[in-house]
Amino acid sequence: MIFLNKLIDFRVMALSDISNLMAGLGKLFKPYKGAFPEFRSLPSKGVSRDELLSILRKMASEEDKSWKNGKVSGAVYNGSDDLVSLYEEVFSIYPLANPLHPDVWPSLVKLESEVVAMCANMLHGDGNVRGSITVGGTESILLAMKTYRDYYRHKKGIIEPEIIIPKSAHAAFLKAAEYFNIRVKIVDLDDKFRVDVEKVKNTITKNTIAIIGSAPNFPYGTIDPIKELAEVAMDHGISMHVDAALGGFILPFARKLGYDIPQFDFDVEGVTSINLDTHKYGYAPKGSSVILYRDPELFSYQVYAIGDWTGGIYFTPTTLGSKPGFTIAATWAVMLHLGEEGYMKITKEILETGKYIINEIKKISELKILGDPLWIIAISSDSINPYVIMDYMAQRGWHLIGLINPPGFHIALTYRHTLPGVKESFINDLRESIKDAIEKGQPTTGMAPIYGATAFLPKDQLDLILKYVIDWLYNPWE
Ligand SMILES: Cc1ncc(COP(=O)(O)O)c(C=O)c1O
Question: Which residues approach ligand 1 with their CB closer than 6 A?
C-alpha cells in the first residue's frame, strides 16, 4: 500500500493506469490464483507426496510449453531430453553433496577444479589461472569486483575505487558497485554499439581499479574492443575484466568454425579476469557459472578465510557458505558429455539460425538491427514503437527482452531456436505483429506503456513503480 499511495500522491501514474498495469502483470506473474490450493501456514499434518507432485507437475508442464517450443529469448539454453536426463541422474547421485565440506565430499574439489581447468584452457589460460564455480553470472561478476576492490585497497591504498563500464554492461556490475561501495563510470557506445575506447581512456582517474568489457554484451550481442581496452588498462596499471557470460562457450567454437571472432580472452595480454556462464551456453543446469583470474594472487582476494573463528577454521571461495554440490557435478558431466564436438555442433546451428534471422529482418523495411550481432539480435524501428511490436509478439507467445535507450527488444538465440520451424515462425510472427501494430495501434495490456515511460519518467519515479510491482510480486497475500 505504501508504494501505491506514493505513486498516486506523487502523480507518477493515474489509478486507472495502475490497475491496467496490474491486470496485465497479474495474468503474467500470478496465473495460478484460485487454480491450486494456497498454503500460507505449515499444515498440521503433511500433505501427501502424490498431491504435492501433482501440483508441481501441473504448473511445470504449463511453463515447459513456452520454452520447449522455442519462444523464449535465452532462459533455457539447451533443454534437450539427453541433457535433462543427465542432470536428473547426476542429481540422484549427488542430492546432498555440499562443497562447504571438502573433507566429506572431496570429489567436488576434483570436479570443480577440472571444470575450472577446462574453462581456462578454452580461453587460452595457462596453469596459473585460478577460479571457482559460482551460482551464476551475477555472482561471478560480484566476486570479481569485490576482488579488485580489495586488491587495489591493499596494493595501492585506493579507498574510493572506481570501475569503468560500457553503457551496455550487464546490470550485475551496477549491483556489485552498490553492494561493495565502488563508484561506476558509465561510458557511451560508438555507432557499432561497442564501447568507445577513447572515452574510456578519458574516464580513467587515479582511483580507477578496473575496466570492463563484454564478449558479447547482453543488450546488443556486440563484442567490445577487448584488446584495445586491455592495452589502456595495462598503460594505467589497472585490471581488465571480460564478461563472457554469453560468449565464453560460443566464441571459441565460432572461431574454430571459421567465424571472424576478435581476441577476447587470456590470449589478450592485460585481461586479468573473465566470467563465463556454464548455465547459459555451457548447457549446465541453472546455478552454475565460472570466474577465472589470470593469476593466483588475484584469486586469493576473492576467497574469504578466517583462521581463528570460534566455530573453527572457516573458508569459502565464493559468496555462499553451504551450496549445492549437484550443480558442480552436473556442470562437469555436461561439459565432458558434449565435448568439443558437441559444443561445435550446437554453436554452428545457433549461428546459422542467427544468420537466417538477421537476413530476414534486413528484408523488413520497418525494422533495423542494432550493431552487427551474431546470435543475440537487437531490433528497433524508426517508424513503429518497438514495444508495441514486442507486445504483439507476446500475444503470439514470444518472451522477448525489452531494451531501453534506444528503445527496442532482443532475442538471444539458443539451441531451442534451432529446432525445425522455429526461426521461420519467429519471422512470420514478427511480420504479423508489425501489421497489428500498424493497423491496431497499442494493445490495452502489455509492457509498452511501462517501457514507454522509461523514456520520460525520472529515475526516482521509475524506481517507485518498480518497488510497487516488486512488493506486489513478493506479497504472498496478494
Ligand atoms: C552478459 C551477461 N553478464 C552477466 C549476466 C548475469 O548472469 P546471471 O543471470 O546468470 O546472474 C548475464 C545474464 O544474462 C549476461 O547476459
Answer: 136-138, 141, 170, 172, 214, 217-218, 243, 245-246, 277, 289
